[in-house]
Amino acid sequence: MTGMDGGLDDELLFGPEDGAVTTAMPNRVSGLPWPVLVVDDDPQVHAMTAVLLRDFDFDGRPFEVVSALSAEDAKVVLARRPDLPVALLDVVMETEDAGLKLVRHIREELGNRRMRIILRTGQPGQAPERDVIVGYDINDYKAKSELTAQRLFTTLVSALRAWRDIVTIERNRQGLERILSASAPLFEMRPMRSFVERLAEQIAQVVDHGSAPAVLACRPVARADGGLTVELVAGLGPFARSIGMPVGDVLSAAAAAEVADALTTQRNLYHDDRCVLAFRTREHGVTVFRLERAEPYTADEQRLLELFCNRVAIGFDNVCLYEELMALNRSLEQRVEERTVELAANQKALILAKERVERALERELLARDQQRQFLGMVSHEFRTPLAIIDSAAQLLAMRAGQVEPEMLERLAVIRGSVQRLTGLIDAHLTDERMQSNALVLERAEIDLPELIRTVVQPFRVAYPDREFRLTLDRLPRRVEIDANLIGLVISNLVNNAVKYSGPGGPIALNGDSDGAMAVIEVTDQGRGIPESELPRLFDRFFRGSGASGVPGTGIGLHTVQQIALLHGGAVAVDSKLGRGSTFRVVLPV
């Protein structure tokens, strides 16, 4: 990516893909997005993260990037949205340890232990992984250069699964605590009267809106003569002094009739200022509660009362509920323990993987240093003899024009070959400068059609049997570009078109304008590219199945893409197997 001064940034935002082929999912289920907090002071990190995640989903839900450009911005976001499940957190922002301080803030000040925190840094030396893992409560540590789209997706899915498990366990634990705290005191009241009295208090708390409702509990009680009478067995408010009295002596005829109907039908009745609840226990028959208050009972309160009474009745009948709850609690504890062991194993695997990556990185750095030395030697040793050959060919051409004109064509072939060999050296040197972040654009106002004609001319001489069709009239004439690099782009694309198309097949170069962009297309009628290989076509050193028997290094198209991106443009390809390919370069005018 390009910095504000036109050069490359000091670090890669994301690493190159490592073999995974990622395709868009057009008909994906659209669910509530998974919010991912991205804390980084580089806006390009936020943009690239959103781009990489927009084609992924997990459990039918896409990803949503919640951005914060500093640790202080992140604190504001977390105060507003404390339920964010995952955070991708940079270390160095407004200060060198702003990210680590934010971790302390989340874990200690906010007390948020559920959020999965993934440190994603471009400067691993600033915050060594081993020290950070030991000293801070984070869940993963990633360098920006190793996070490809697929690895970013894998990391986020693992974090979301862990967060979801933790939330589920917490909710289950809280639910169990509420059930145990509400039911344990009731279950301790083994006498029916004590149980009903405590139950009346609990029901009053369920529907309490600031003014205590009047509650009475009544049930059939055996009389001395062997008959049954409905008496108050518990009461709150105005009914507290009527316990033990018949319902007909306490309530009006209509209210007593509602109680009698509830005892018979065992159905609940709800009115604006009162409700009658009936539940049956296996041991003690039917008990009816009547609640009165000034405020009407809402639908939610009705459902809450239904649920409360049903659960209490079922719990009272089942004397083994406590043991079952304890067994469930032990099961949850075992699940937590197993999950903890699994996370420890994953952490150990990550440490081993980190060590392997470090060793591989050391080998790669050594190989790159050796390659850099070799390229420097080749550039120095080859350019001088190539320049001498080109100069000698020019002198011979001047003489041959007067003495042997038929030699001019052969000398032109020699000069074209020298130019292509020089271009090959330039391509490798350009690629090496890109990898070391040392390439700087040297923009100047250039006649773009004339530049393209100049690049194509050596190919006309070297391949006299090939037809090169140039349609450049609609291309902007004056553009501000790096002529050497854009010339290298055109040369690479034309060279590929020549190598991968049959003898005699025409090669077309078309130019056009699209708003403020110049569009250059190079089209051949060659063997084409398999659709499965298109996503990796611009990867460094990638050579497709159709490259068998064709000389090349696999850096040409990667260099083309990087040069186009440096200019603020892009490159794309359309290809049909067996029918040819069209490479399209778009550059800002």
TrEMBL record:
Residues 35-159 form the Response regulatory domain. Its EC number is 2.7.13.3. It catalyses: ATP + protein L-histidine = ADP + protein N-phospho-L-histidine. Residues 377-589 form the Histidine kinase domain. InterPro entries: CheY-like_superfamily, DUF3369, HATPase_C_sf, HATPase_dom, His_kinase_dom, HisK_dim/P_dom, HisK_dim/P_sf, Sensor_HK_Regulatory. The modification 4-aspartylphosphate is found at residue 90. Keywords: Kinase, Phosphoprotein, Transferase, Two-component regulatory system. GO terms for molecular function: phosphorelay sensor kinase activity. Pfam families: DUF3369, HATPase_c, HisKA. It is an enzyme of class 2 (transferase). SMART domains: HATPase_c, HisKA. PANTHER family: HISTIDINE KINASE 1, TWO-COMPONENT HISTIDINE KINASE. This is histidine kinase.
